Amino acid sequence: MMGSNKDSRAYLGYADKVDIMGVAFHRITLDAAAEMASAARDEGRSFIICTPNPEIVEKARRDDDLASSLAGADLVVPDGIGVILASRILGKPLLERVAGIDLARRLLEVASQKHWRVFLLGTDAKTVAKAGETLRKELPGISWIGWHHGYFSKEEEEEVSDLIKRARPDLVLVGMGSPRQERWARDYGRSLGACIVLTVGGSLDVFAGKARRAPGLVRKMGIEWLYRLLMDPKRAGRQVQLFVFGIRVLGERLRMMVRRG
Question: For a disulfide at 28, which of 15, 51, 64, 143, Cβ 3.0-4.6 Å?
Fold first, then answer.
Protein backbone atom coordinates (compact mmCIF):
# COMPACT_ATOMS: atom_id res chain seq x y z
CA MET A 1 0.00 0.00 0.00
CA MET A 2 1.31 3.43 -0.90
CA GLY A 3 2.40 5.56 2.01
CA SER A 4 3.71 2.68 4.13
CA ASN A 5 6.37 3.52 6.71
CA LYS A 6 8.38 0.43 5.77
CA ASP A 7 12.05 1.31 5.32
CA SER A 8 12.73 1.49 1.59
CA ARG A 9 16.01 -0.33 2.11
CA ALA A 10 13.97 -3.46 2.87
CA TYR A 11 12.76 -3.38 -0.71
CA LEU A 12 16.31 -3.08 -1.98
CA GLY A 13 17.16 -6.20 -0.02
CA TYR A 14 14.19 -8.00 -1.54
CA ALA A 15 14.62 -6.70 -5.07
CA ASP A 16 17.67 -8.61 -6.19
CA LYS A 17 19.46 -7.45 -9.32
CA VAL A 18 19.34 -9.31 -12.60
CA ASP A 19 21.97 -8.71 -15.29
CA ILE A 20 20.35 -8.32 -18.68
CA MET A 21 22.99 -7.93 -21.38
CA GLY A 22 25.29 -5.90 -19.18
CA VAL A 23 22.75 -3.76 -17.31
CA ALA A 24 21.70 -4.70 -13.78
CA PHE A 25 17.92 -4.40 -13.35
CA HIS A 26 16.04 -4.71 -10.08
CA ARG A 27 13.37 -7.41 -9.87
CA ILE A 28 10.57 -5.20 -8.62
CA THR A 29 6.98 -4.25 -9.41
CA LEU A 30 5.66 -0.80 -10.27
CA ASP A 31 3.88 -0.58 -6.91
CA ALA A 32 6.98 -1.52 -4.93
CA ALA A 33 9.19 0.85 -6.94
CA ALA A 34 6.88 3.78 -6.24
CA GLU A 35 6.64 2.95 -2.56
CA MET A 36 10.38 2.50 -2.23
CA ALA A 37 11.04 5.89 -3.82
CA SER A 38 8.40 7.57 -1.68
CA ALA A 39 9.84 6.02 1.48
CA ALA A 40 13.33 7.21 0.56
CA ARG A 41 12.03 10.76 0.21
CA ASP A 42 10.24 10.52 3.55
CA GLU A 43 13.48 9.29 5.14
CA GLY A 44 15.28 12.38 3.81
CA ARG A 45 17.43 10.59 1.25
CA SER A 46 18.13 11.28 -2.39
CA PHE A 47 16.92 8.55 -4.71
CA ILE A 48 17.80 8.20 -8.39
CA ILE A 49 15.77 5.96 -10.70
CA CYS A 50 16.75 5.06 -14.26
CA THR A 51 14.41 3.37 -16.72
CA PRO A 52 16.40 1.66 -19.51
CA ASN A 53 14.74 0.07 -22.53
CA PRO A 54 16.53 -2.20 -25.06
CA GLU A 55 17.82 0.81 -26.99
CA ILE A 56 19.46 2.22 -23.86
CA VAL A 57 20.91 -1.19 -22.99
CA GLU A 58 22.50 -1.26 -26.43
CA LYS A 59 23.86 2.26 -25.99
CA ALA A 60 25.35 1.31 -22.63
CA ARG A 61 27.25 -1.55 -24.29
CA ARG A 62 29.16 1.01 -26.37
CA ASP A 63 29.16 3.92 -23.89
CA ASP A 64 31.02 3.29 -20.64
CA ASP A 65 29.86 6.63 -19.22
CA LEU A 66 26.21 5.69 -19.73
CA ALA A 67 26.85 2.27 -18.21
CA SER A 68 28.40 4.03 -15.20
CA SER A 69 25.37 6.31 -14.88
CA LEU A 70 23.01 3.34 -14.83
CA ALA A 71 25.16 1.46 -12.34
CA GLY A 72 25.14 4.46 -10.00
CA ALA A 73 21.35 4.71 -9.79
CA ASP A 74 19.51 3.56 -6.68
CA LEU A 75 16.92 1.75 -8.75
CA VAL A 76 17.02 0.50 -12.36
CA VAL A 77 13.70 -0.70 -13.76
CA PRO A 78 12.81 -2.21 -17.17
CA ASP A 79 11.06 0.29 -19.43
CA GLY A 80 10.41 -1.87 -22.45
CA ILE A 81 8.78 -5.23 -23.13
CA GLY A 82 11.99 -6.25 -24.90
CA VAL A 83 13.86 -6.26 -21.60
CA ILE A 84 11.14 -8.40 -20.00
CA LEU A 85 11.21 -10.91 -22.86
CA ALA A 86 15.01 -11.00 -22.73
CA SER A 87 14.94 -11.76 -19.01
CA ARG A 88 12.64 -14.73 -19.64
CA ILE A 89 14.71 -16.04 -22.54
CA LEU A 90 17.84 -15.87 -20.39
CA GLY A 91 16.12 -17.67 -17.51
CA LYS A 92 16.30 -14.65 -15.19
CA PRO A 93 12.73 -13.34 -15.34
CA LEU A 94 11.98 -9.83 -14.14
CA LEU A 95 8.64 -9.35 -12.40
CA GLU A 96 6.99 -6.88 -14.78
CA ARG A 97 7.57 -3.93 -17.05
CA VAL A 98 7.95 -0.69 -15.08
CA ALA A 99 7.56 2.03 -17.70
CA GLY A 100 9.04 5.39 -16.81
CA ILE A 101 5.83 7.21 -17.67
CA ASP A 102 3.77 4.87 -15.45
CA LEU A 103 6.17 5.28 -12.54
CA ALA A 104 6.17 9.05 -13.09
CA ARG A 105 2.38 9.13 -13.02
CA ARG A 106 2.29 7.05 -9.85
CA LEU A 107 4.81 9.30 -8.11
CA LEU A 108 2.94 12.40 -9.24
CA GLU A 109 -0.16 10.99 -7.57
CA VAL A 110 1.89 10.50 -4.39
CA ALA A 111 3.12 14.07 -4.78
CA SER A 112 -0.48 15.26 -4.87
CA GLN A 113 -1.34 13.25 -1.76
CA LYS A 114 1.69 14.44 0.18
CA HIS A 115 1.76 18.00 -1.21
CA TRP A 116 5.24 17.62 -2.66
CA ARG A 117 7.12 20.11 -4.78
CA VAL A 118 7.77 18.88 -8.33
CA PHE A 119 10.20 20.01 -11.02
CA LEU A 120 10.09 19.07 -14.71
CA LEU A 121 13.33 19.17 -16.72
CA GLY A 122 13.46 18.50 -20.42
CA THR A 123 11.98 18.89 -23.92
CA ASP A 124 11.48 22.41 -25.35
CA ALA A 125 10.35 25.46 -23.37
CA LYS A 126 6.79 25.56 -24.73
CA THR A 127 6.17 21.85 -24.24
CA VAL A 128 7.56 21.59 -20.70
CA ALA A 129 5.51 24.65 -19.67
CA LYS A 130 2.40 23.01 -21.12
CA ALA A 131 3.19 19.78 -19.25
CA GLY A 132 3.57 21.73 -16.01
CA GLU A 133 0.31 23.61 -16.45
CA THR A 134 -1.55 20.41 -17.36
CA LEU A 135 -0.26 18.50 -14.34
CA ARG A 136 -1.02 21.46 -12.08
CA LYS A 137 -4.69 21.27 -13.14
CA GLU A 138 -4.90 17.47 -12.97
CA LEU A 139 -3.18 17.15 -9.60
CA PRO A 140 -3.99 20.25 -7.53
CA GLY A 141 -2.65 18.61 -4.38
CA ILE A 142 0.91 19.16 -5.58
CA SER A 143 2.11 22.20 -3.68
CA TRP A 144 4.25 23.61 -6.50
CA ILE A 145 5.40 22.67 -10.00
CA GLY A 146 8.37 24.32 -11.71
CA TRP A 147 10.04 23.55 -15.02
CA HIS A 148 12.97 24.24 -17.31
CA HIS A 149 13.60 23.18 -20.90
CA GLY A 150 16.26 20.63 -21.72
CA TYR A 151 18.06 22.59 -24.43
CA PHE A 152 20.83 24.02 -22.28
CA SER A 153 24.54 23.70 -22.96
CA LYS A 154 27.17 21.81 -21.01
CA GLU A 155 28.38 25.15 -19.68
CA GLU A 156 24.90 25.92 -18.34
CA GLU A 157 24.45 22.66 -16.44
CA GLU A 158 25.68 24.04 -13.11
CA GLU A 159 23.38 27.04 -13.41
CA VAL A 160 20.35 24.90 -14.18
CA SER A 161 21.10 22.44 -11.39
CA ASP A 162 21.50 25.32 -8.92
CA LEU A 163 18.12 26.68 -10.05
CA ILE A 164 16.50 23.33 -9.35
CA LYS A 165 18.26 22.98 -6.00
CA ARG A 166 16.99 26.38 -4.88
CA ALA A 167 13.45 25.25 -5.76
CA ARG A 168 13.74 22.50 -3.08
CA PRO A 169 11.85 19.84 -5.09
CA ASP A 170 10.73 16.50 -3.72
CA LEU A 171 10.44 14.96 -7.19
CA VAL A 172 12.29 15.81 -10.41
CA LEU A 173 11.28 14.26 -13.73
CA VAL A 174 14.16 14.37 -16.22
CA GLY A 175 13.16 13.94 -19.86
CA MET A 176 16.18 14.82 -21.99
CA GLY A 177 16.74 11.58 -23.84
CA SER A 178 19.46 9.02 -23.29
CA PRO A 179 22.30 9.19 -22.42
CA ARG A 180 22.01 12.83 -21.40
CA GLN A 181 19.25 12.35 -18.82
CA GLU A 182 21.07 9.49 -17.07
CA ARG A 183 24.31 11.45 -16.95
CA TRP A 184 22.57 14.54 -15.58
CA ALA A 185 20.86 12.46 -12.89
CA ARG A 186 24.21 10.96 -11.90
CA ASP A 187 26.14 14.23 -11.90
CA TYR A 188 23.55 16.47 -10.24
CA GLY A 189 20.82 14.34 -8.70
CA ARG A 190 22.57 13.86 -5.36
CA SER A 191 23.17 17.60 -4.98
CA LEU A 192 19.41 18.25 -4.82
CA GLY A 193 19.11 16.83 -1.30
CA ALA A 194 16.16 14.69 -0.23
CA CYS A 195 14.70 14.30 -3.68
CA ILE A 196 13.54 11.60 -6.09
CA VAL A 197 15.10 11.97 -9.54
CA LEU A 198 13.42 9.89 -12.25
CA THR A 199 14.47 9.65 -15.90
CA VAL A 200 11.37 9.68 -18.11
CA GLY A 201 12.47 9.99 -21.74
CA GLY A 202 9.67 11.49 -23.82
CA SER A 203 7.04 11.40 -21.06
CA LEU A 204 6.94 15.20 -20.72
CA ASP A 205 5.73 15.39 -24.33
CA VAL A 206 2.91 13.00 -23.42
CA PHE A 207 1.96 14.98 -20.31
CA ALA A 208 1.83 18.10 -22.47
CA GLY A 209 -0.40 16.43 -25.05
CA LYS A 210 2.25 16.81 -27.75
CA ALA A 211 2.66 13.04 -28.09
CA ARG A 212 0.26 10.18 -27.49
CA ARG A 213 0.85 6.88 -25.76
CA ALA A 214 -0.20 3.68 -27.43
CA PRO A 215 -3.69 2.47 -26.47
CA GLY A 216 -3.86 0.25 -23.42
CA LEU A 217 -4.54 -2.91 -25.43
CA VAL A 218 -1.48 -2.26 -27.58
CA ARG A 219 0.66 -1.85 -24.45
CA LYS A 220 -0.71 -5.07 -22.97
CA MET A 221 0.15 -6.90 -26.19
CA GLY A 222 3.73 -5.70 -25.88
CA ILE A 223 3.81 -3.98 -29.28
CA GLU A 224 3.98 -0.35 -28.19
CA TRP A 225 7.25 -0.12 -30.13
CA LEU A 226 5.35 -0.98 -33.34
CA TYR A 227 2.70 1.63 -32.60
CA ARG A 228 5.38 4.27 -32.13
CA LEU A 229 7.03 3.26 -35.40
CA LEU A 230 3.76 3.49 -37.31
CA MET A 231 3.00 6.88 -35.77
CA ASP A 232 6.52 8.14 -36.44
CA PRO A 233 8.35 6.28 -39.26
CA LYS A 234 11.45 8.37 -38.54
CA ARG A 235 11.99 6.09 -35.53
CA ALA A 236 12.98 3.26 -37.88
CA GLY A 237 16.67 3.86 -37.30
CA ARG A 238 16.18 3.61 -33.55
CA GLN A 239 14.15 0.41 -33.88
CA VAL A 240 17.15 -1.28 -35.46
CA GLN A 241 18.66 -1.28 -31.97
CA LEU A 242 15.72 -3.39 -30.77
CA PHE A 243 16.54 -5.96 -33.46
CA VAL A 244 20.24 -5.94 -32.53
CA PHE A 245 19.32 -6.36 -28.88
CA GLY A 246 17.12 -9.36 -29.72
CA ILE A 247 19.87 -11.03 -31.74
CA ARG A 248 22.34 -10.55 -28.90
CA VAL A 249 19.88 -12.05 -26.41
CA LEU A 250 19.30 -15.11 -28.57
CA GLY A 251 23.05 -15.47 -29.04
CA GLU A 252 23.58 -15.37 -25.29
CA ARG A 253 20.85 -17.97 -24.80
CA LEU A 254 22.55 -20.24 -27.32
CA ARG A 255 25.90 -19.86 -25.54
CA MET A 256 24.22 -20.75 -22.25
CA MET A 257 22.80 -23.93 -23.78
CA VAL A 258 26.18 -24.90 -25.21
CA ARG A 259 27.91 -24.37 -21.87
CA ARG A 260 25.35 -26.59 -20.18
CA GLY A 261 26.02 -29.29 -22.77
Answer: 15
DSSP letter assigned to residue 215:
P
Residue 79 backbone dihedrals phi, psi, to 5 degrees: -100, 90
The answer to whether position 144 is within a domain reads yes
By the 8 A CB rule, do 2 and 110 touch? yes
- Yes or no: say if 45 and 65 are a contact pair by the CB < 8 Å rule: no
Cross-strand pairs, 49: 75, 198
Instruction: Report the number of distinct structural domains present in the chain.
Output: 1
Residue 216: DSSP 8-state: H
DSSP-assigned letter for residue 155: G
Q: Is residue 249 part of a domain?
A: no
How does pLDDT run along the chain (261 residues), one tens digit per residue?
343 434 444 455 456 899 999 999 999 999 999 999 999 999 999 999 999 999 999 999 999 999 999 999 999 999 989 999 999 999 999 999 999 999 999 999 999 999 999 999 999 999 999 999 999 999 999 999 999 999 999 999 999 999 999 999 999 999 999 999 999 999 999 999 999 999 999 999 999 999 887 677 766 766 676 566 566 666 666 777 888 999 999 999 999 999 886
pTM: 0.89
Handedness of CA 80, 21, 84, 171 (dihedral sign): negative
